[in-house]
Amino acid sequence: MTASPPVDLPLDPFLLEHLDDPYPVYERLRDAGPVVHLADRDLWVVARYDSVSTVLRKYRQFVSGRGSSYVRVAASGFRAPFIDNDPPAHTRIRRSVQQRFARSAIEEMRPDVREPTERLVEAAVAQGEVDVVTALTQPLPDLAIRRLTGITPPNTETITSWADSVMHMVGPDADPVHMERVLEAVGWLAEQGLAGMPAHCLGRLIMEQGGDTADLEDGEERLMTLASIWLAGIDSTNSLLANAVHAFAHFPEAWEAVRDDPTLIPNAVEEVLRWDSPFRQFFRRTVEEVEIGGVVIPADADVCAILPAANRDPARFADPDTLDIARPDARQHVAFGASIHLCIGAPVARLEAAEFLGALASRVRAFELVGTPVRNPNREIRNFTSLPVRLVTA
Ligand code: HEM
């Protein structure tokens, strides 16, 4: 294969100094070429929209089976049933629950998501100044995932901390302590969580029947399939909801437009996902030499696809740093990934976010930051530990 050598950059997008604003370093990675090699980490990074899409879509060349996290399955000894498998195992596992995530099935959850959302937003508005994270964006995903799975965790703090450990574990700063917390979560689920599940819930379908196809192996595979859905839906949506408030605090005219015309909410959700995407990256490994944009990536290489960088690529999205809730192609973002691993929970996250913005739009005229937002020092997901905001009503 003849191709240009890769650009080698002395850049590290994972440093904590890029936590608040990683977009300048993402721009440098995009500008440097279709594929960039980070020599210190021996990592092949794609940051352009086209390159990221190629890596996600060519799933036979860029495989997940060796691990979709920073650390390979062989090194961590941990394989998540959905994201760390390739066909046919991935297809079998995904089909076992796929129809439960169809839009029509998720739509049935709406009244049960709306009621607590309205209640919590009402209480936050009555307070005036709140930390949006503890008041709203942490509890709401927990409530939705309880309804989806049938699992009632000990409390919101515990499930939030367990889910945060999952996000550390898949990222570049994995530490044995995170693995311990994740094992604690799965241990709690096995020993206490399953017993408390109501009849006819997704959790029982998986554990007792092996999913709709009855294809999930009894024991660990069923438990880990359920645990993956349970834990993947918490921090991810927390990030989306908090990112939305943060975004609208910076673009008050966009919030005014949402208030004037709430039918814009679904597209506004897509635009927030594009403008500040929850997951920073996912990983793939090459099974053979592959060329992208004239650069050859060797076989068995670690490839890192930076999703928020792709979503701010000016070659794909006009004026990408502006939050434009009427953007016609906002939904083309890759915040939910693409192809066979496209987020199965996307309809759940979209529903939660639409209900959240709907409840806020009917009550809140503006979001004013009343303190410095604090980002969670997590190099995998872009969320906040604190987002103090005044919810202005008058
Ligand atoms: C805003 C919220 C969310 C975002 C941004 C998000 C993002 C993603 C991304 C980027 C992937 C692809 C990973 C890869 O390609 O390796 C993914 C997969 C997945 N997500 Fe989400 N997610 C969100 C919410 C949820 C929710 C609410 C659930 C569960 C209820 C969920 C469950 C999953 C599962 C099980 C997979 C693996 C799918 C597969 O490999 O086939 N996610 N998500």
From TrEMBL:
Pfam families noted in UniProt: p450
SUPFAM superfamilies in UniProt: Cytochrome P450 (SSF48264)
InterPro entries membership: Cyt_P450, Cyt_P450_B, Cyt_P450_sf
Protein's name in the database: Cytochrome P450
Organism: Actinomycetospora termitidis
Lineage: Bacteria, Bacillati, Actinomycetota, Actinomycetes, Pseudonocardiales
Record family assignment: Belongs to the cytochrome P450 family.
Residues in the signal sequence: none
Gene3D superfamilies on file: Cytochrome P450 (1.10.630.10)
